[in-house]
Each structure stands twice: as C-alpha cells, then as structure tokens.
Amino acid sequence: DAPLLEVDDLYVEFHTRDGVAKVLNGVSYHVEAGETLAVLGESGSGKSVTAQAIMGILDVPPAVVTGGAIRYHGEDLLAVSDQRRSDVRAEGIAMIFQDALSALNPVFTVGFQIEEQLRVRLGLSRKEARKRAIALLDQVRIPNAARRVRQYPHEFSGGMRQRAMIAMSLALDPEVLIADEPTTALDVTVQAQIMDLLKEIQVERKMGLILITHDLAVVAEVADRIAVMYAGRIVEHSDAVSLYRKPGHPYTVGLMESMPRLDQKGTELRTIKGLPPSLLAIPSGCPFHPRCPMAVDKCVTDVPGDHRLGLGRTSKCHFAEELVGRV
Ligand code: SF4
Ligand code: MG
C-alpha cells in the first residue's frame, strides 16, 4: 500500500538576485495515518519549505521545484491538474502555523471562517455549519464555544487563537495535519497544552501529524519518528526512541546537547558552534563539516550517503555506525 503522504527525493531551488539557492536537495519522508513525524532543524534547514511544497504555497518564482514527487495515497500532487491538487489539499491535508493571526482573517468572526469552508466545500446549511463550528471549538477546548464562535480573532488570547486555528484546520476532517512551529510564539505552559491537544486530536482522529520544529524538547514526548534536516537534506531519520537513546548523526548530538534537561539543572547548555551554511554556497563534502567536532579530511571531500542503521534508521554521516555503536 502507498503511504498516506510521501515526499520523495524533492529538490527545490530559489532563484534570487544573488544566485541559485539550493533549498531542498533530495528530501524524502512519509507519514502514515495515526502517527506523528517530527521534522527537526534550525531555521533555513528547509523544513518549512518542504511543508509549503506539500501545500502548494511556495512562492513561484523565486521557488522552482526541480525534481521529485509529493504523493498523497500514491497520487503525485506535482503531476495532477491544479484543480485536482487544490481539492486534495483542501480536503485531505491541512496546515497550521506559528502565527495564528496571519492565518485567521481579522475582519471575520472565528465562526464565519470555519463555517465558510463547511458551506462551500461540504454544502452545509448555515445552521448546520454553525453547529459544526461550535463542536469544533469545543473539541479544541475553547470554553463557551457557543459565544466564542461569534467573536473576532483579536478577542482571543494567543493560546486560544492557536486553538481556533487548529479547529479551523480540522473543519474538513483532514487525514494529514502539518503543524509548522505551532507553539513557538507561546509561553511554556500554553506550549505544553497545545502540544497535548494536538497529540490528543491526532490519536482520536487517527491523523498523520507532521510536526515541524527547531526545538527537540517540544517533540520529545509526542513524536513517533524524527527526521532531522540540515542544509536542505535529511541527515538523520529514526524512530524517536532510538534517536534519543543514541543519536546517529553529530548534528543530532549537537541538538540534543543544546536541549535543556530537567535532571541536569544548572549544567551549561552546549550549543552547536557556527551558523547554518548559506544555501547559495553549500560546503563541499558533508555540508555539516565546518561545524562538526568529528570532522576529518574525508568529510571535506566526500558527500556522505545514507548509512542504514537498522529499524529503518538512516544517517548521512561517514561515522554513523561508530556513533550508534554498531561497528
Ligand atoms: Fe561530521 Fe564528517 Fe559525519 Fe559530516 S560526515 S557529520 S563532518 S563526521
Ligand atoms: Mg520555518
């Protein structure tokens, strides 16, 4: 059976005044019904661009897809008609963002924005749509949903707005939900509540959830699998348990060392030295070599391929086997 949603060897370039930025360089991942894939990486690693490509919201130009496929139930969304593509995306795949204010229209009530989709796409009457909107707000634990449905986005707090956006994204009962840094703008307590809510909804609806984040701590408890991105490629792909037990790529090691841990209060956090590379001039060999504490000469010249580490794990590091102790 074809995976629910699959990105297969995707290449994207941005044609800028300064040259061609190689933003995605052969990205592959998939998500199945009822599982959570976390896509982890610093900003500029390509995690949002991959999501935008799935949703068909890349800015064209400057973005150009130069290779690969995006398959939903085996159907390549890059190869079908615009109409077919937008139908699939509207009804099968939904996305939420860091900033709910940019996703919600300030001049319409929250209820109207949910109901509009239900009326246009599903042909519900006004009354039915209103009922469904209230039920959705209720499901995302917005108190007094029947009153809240008539309010405008600015009348909601940050956390409540995020919940309203989640409700809106669920209106057409998507099979896949993509959440791009859904909690980054929120304070820590609210962050945890929203993550719990997303997880709960994902389990209840058996959705595939793609959780995009720069923060390993955020996904620690909810991810089934983790894809770590660097310089527009996936440098490690692993089930979450194995990755936390023993990261298979020096970049993942760095991300873990810069994650605050409750059991080690007061210890100084180590952060990865240097900055992510410019995508206009990706370093030779392993793109992580200028920042890698394990780098040797070979890393400067030879591009590491995918090393298979068992259980479907892969790592693009010449020393992946040594790192996980399989040598
Ligand atoms: Fe570091 Fe070399 Fe592995 Fe790249 S291939 S992550 S530079 S050790
Ligand atoms: Mg981003």
Automatic annotation (TrEMBL):
A GO term for molecular function: ATP binding
Pfam families documented for this protein: ABC_tran, oligo_HPY
ATP-binding keyword on record: yes
Transmembrane portions of the chain: none
UniProt keyword annotation of Membrane present: yes
Annotated keywords: ATP-binding, Cell membrane, Membrane, Nucleotide-binding, Transport
Coiled coil: none
Bilayer topology term: Peripheral membrane protein
The organism's place on the tree of life at top rank: Bacteria
Domain ABC transporter: 5-256
Cellular localisation: Cell membrane
Family per record: Belongs to the ABC transporter superfamily.
The name this protein goes by in its record: ABC transporter ATP-binding protein
